[in-house]
Amino acid sequence: MASGHPDLMQPLIECRAARLTDAPAYRRYEAECGAAGLPLYQVAQFGSTQWLQELLAHANGLHLPPGYLPTTTYFALEGEALLATLRLRHGDKPSHPPVAWLYRLRDHPTRRGEGVARTLLGWLQRHVLSEPVLISCDEANPASLKVIAAAGGQWLDRRYHAGDRCWVRFYRLAPAKRPGLCGRQ
Hints:
single chain, globular, alpha+beta
């Protein structure tokens, strides 16, 4: 808890790589995101523990779909509540530049606008990234665009994503140059 007046005390947000012990929090997160109409979570919630196990295996390069690269999933948690997720794809493939790629930065629907995504992305910049990465975002998502801008994202390109039927913006995001506070590691 933060120090100060009791009415101003808020739990710390813990940012870290996903763990299998997070399955109950992930199950609740997926159910709530699915109920809020987020299509990815409407499908995943039917096997959320298995889905999380697959995500953890992907971080180790196991059970990857054809053409996929190892990808680590990071969570922002407040106690037992999962507030945001982010995936970091490691390495490159012919269709992508030779850098890591951040994608699927998602806030819990009831926690949007509270700075949780900014907290998770900033933590990743300070504690995980050692080289610049690419990060992409649907250009019709002003909240994500603000988070990327606040993190120092440098605009690179704009492309149409036929699968999602939207324009996607691509940014370069550098590691943070100085340590800062963000919950626990």
